[in-house]
Design goal:
This protein is α+β, with helices and mostly antiparallel strands. The chain contains 10 helices and 21 strands. Strands 1, 2, 3, 4, 5, 6, 7, 8, 9 and 10 form a 10-stranded antiparallel beta sheet that branches. Strands 11, 12, 15, 16, 17, 18, 19, 20 and 21 form a 9-stranded mixed beta sheet that branches. The two termini are 27 Å apart. The N terminus is likely disordered.
């Protein structure tokens, strides 16, 4: 699903980004200046938190908090008390306070939010950089090309990376040592939220990992920055819906066809990107579809199931209903969400006559496999080329997970399951 940052459909995940600056006057000699890091254990959730106390030129101290596991940095806080051995800070917008004393070189304190309190011990330092072992390293054994294409109707110019397969010479259109032309190419369509071409979040770059793997297996890809994001310019975002973003993706397909280099042009969509993929499939724009956790049920039904799954795994009562969801303030104020809750993808899925590979993880909290896999099996036309598969233990990002909660995404080192990557390539190669 799609737009603004993080994920529109992530139901209130504990910490929100706040675009403010908190400053407080203190004695410049305090021993607590710098960064402090610790792990907040709150029932089923475990979050890394970082507290920054930065001395400013005017003698004040800028107070900020990071939640790197949620991709949140620079959350503004204000000082309630600060000395050489004690600190108390507040993040008023989300109702968070943290009070601690220096003990054996550590800040030993209490984190409180909305009536709940948890111990939180912070040690000096900003913490180790997250490990991402699947991140491709340059130099790459394949050619890439920076490209742009335009959705003229919406006034959006999209910038992206066209990645060719290993051994393919983009100038001659041949594989080195073989007279093989026209490889298959896949357009990658990201999930909800303004994202760059790598679908980057929580230090992971899923689309870069996918593009790298496919290139090494003989498949080209085009991934692009969402409109008004990264190097892409133009296009309305505030009032845009999935139909608008579909036209961006369609412009990408038209660009690839204009190159006259590719045998087949398919689309791989993640989450909302999967929904868009079936819009393109029903319009006969794509030669094949790979749907990574794409929705197969009506939006309000999907979002209510999502909310209740996250509430349940967080130890809360599953009280969300369609009526309650529709009454939320965000639904009334967000055009994308207004459109999405009323959208039913059934017809577009059924009318997509091209080959389809629909994947879901059984620990996905955002697009539940128990709800969407049966819908795909019911809606897709009977074809030996179609494949619907559920993966045990995988979450919405197709990582091996413990709970599937979005709070785990940044904590997991794996970017995407190797089995999923292998299955995608093997399915494409069989077409």
């Amino acid at each position: 699903m799609k737009k603004p940052n993080l994920r529109r459909i992530m139901i209130c995940l504990f910490v929100a980004l706040v675009a403010m600056t908190g400053k407080a006057q203190i004695q410049p000699s305090t021993n607590l200046l710098g960064s402090w890091t610790g792990k907040l254990n709150a029932g089923v959730m475990s979050l890394t938190l970082v507290l920054h106390l930065e001395q400013q030129d005017d003698g004040s101290v800028k107070v900020m908090m990071d939640s790197p596991d949620q991709g949140a940095k620079g959350i503004a806080a204000t000082k309630e008390y600060l000395s050489d051995d004690s600190v108390a800070v507040r993040v008023g917008v989300i109702g968070v306070t943290y009070q601690a004393r220096l003990k054996d070189g550590k800040l030993d304190g209490t984190f409180s939010q909305r009536g709940m309190s948890f111990p939180l011990v912070l040690t000096r330092g900003a913490g180790a950089e997250a490990k991402r072992p699947q991140m491709p390293k340059q130099p790459y054994p394949y050619q890439t090309e920076e490209v742009t294409f335009t959705n003229e109707k919406d006034g959006a110019t999209l910038a992206g990376s066209l990645t060719y397969p290993v051994g393919y010479d983009k100038e001659s259109g041949k594989r080195v040592g073989r007279d093989v032309k026209s490889p298959t190419v896949v357009l990658l369509i990201s999930g909800s939220g303004q994202q760059n071409r790598d679908e980057e979040l929580f230090g992971h770059k899923p689309f870069l990992v996918i593009a790298d793997y496919l290139a090494r297996q003989g498949v080209a890809t085009l991934r692009y920055d969402d409109r008004a994001t990264g190097k892409s310019i133009g296009g309305d975002v505030k009032n845009a819906t999935s139909e608008d973003f579909m036209r961006d993706a369609e412009a990408g397909i038209e660009f690839l066809r204009s190159q006259k280099k590719f045998k087949k042009i398919g689309v791989l969509g993640h989450s909302e990107g999967g929904l868009i993929a079936f819009m393109l499939g029903a319009g006969k724009k794509a030669d094949f579809i790979v749907s990574l956790a794409g929705p197969a049920v009506k939006g309000d039904t999907l979002l209510v199931a999502q909310a209740n799954r996250i509430l349940s795994l967080s130890g809360q009562p599953t009280i969300m209903t369609v009526e309650k969801y529709r009454q939320q303030k965000e639904v009334q104020e967000m055009p994308w969400l207004q459109w999405f809750i009323n959208y039913d993808p059934s017809d577009n899925i059924h009318n997509s006559r091209c080959p389809v590979f629909a994947l879901n993880g059984d620990r996905d909290c955002q697009v539940l496999s128990s709800q969407n896999i049966p819908a795909f099996q019911r809606l897709l036309r009977k074809s030996k080329k179609n494949l619907v598969k559920e993966y045990p233990g995988l979450n919405h990002l197709f990582q091996h997970s413990t709970t599937g909660l979005p709070t785990e995404y940044g904590q997991i080192e794996e970017t995407i399951s190797p089995e999923v990557l292998q299955d995608i390539v093997q399915w494409i190669q069989r077409l």
